[in-house]
Hints:
The protein is of the alpha/beta class. The chain folds into two domains: 2-45 and 99-207, Ribosomal Protein L4, Chain: A, CATH 3.40.1370; 48-95, no CATH class. Helix content is 33%, strand content 15%. It has a six-stranded mixed β-sheet. Strand 1 and strand 2 (12-18) form a beta hairpin. Helix 2 (30-43) crosses helix 3 and helix 4 (136-145) packs across helix 5 (162-168). The longest helix is centred in the middle third of the chain and has 17 residues, at 103-119. It is elongated.
Amino acid sequence: MEVAVYTIEGKETGRTVALDESIFGIQPSRQALYLDVKRILAHKRQGTHKTKERAEIARTTKKHHRQKGTGGARHGSLKSPIHRGGGTVFGPRPHDYVVNLNAKTIRLARKSALSTKAAESAIKIVEDFTFEKPKTKDFLNILKNLQIADKKSLVVLSEKNSNVYLSSRNLERSKVVIASELNTYQIISSQVLLISESALGKIKDQLNN
Length: 209
C-alpha cells in the first residue's frame, strides 16, 4: 500500500512510502484487540480501593443492650454491619488488575489496530519535523495544514522530542507518542494517525521482530 508523504505545510512532497502489508494490511483480529485493550486499561487501575470490615472498625466492645427482655433483636457489638458506622460486608480490598498477555498476541493486536486505520485511510505520513522551542501555535498550525485539527489525532515520532511534546500538551484532541511506546488502545481511540517518516521504520522493526 503506497501513501503520500506530506510536508508540515500540508503539501505533498511528490514522494510516497510503502506501508508494510504484514503490519498495515492484515485481517484484523477482534479477539486480540479486545484482549490487549483490556490489558492496557487494567494496568491503569491503581487497585487501592478499600473499606473497613467488622474486625477493623474501632468501636466499643461493650454489649449494646441486655440480651433478653428488650423486645428487640440480640446485639453483641456495634461493629456489626447492620449498625450505622459498622463494618462493610465483603468490602473491596486492595489488589492489582494485571492481565498477562503473551508478546505474540500483543503484536497481533497492534497490527490489527494499524491495519484497521489503514483500511479507513486514517493514516498520514509527514516528513520529520521539530521545533526550536515549544510553541502550541506551531503544532496546531501543522494539524490545520494537514486538515486534521478537528479530529482526535495521534502523532507518532521516532524518538523523544521535548519541544514537540510540550507544544502538544495543551491540546485536548491531540497526543504525541514515540514509536516504541505506541500501543493498541492509543491507536484505536484516535481518529487519525500522523506518523513521521522515520517513525514508520521504527514501527516496522518493532512489530516484525
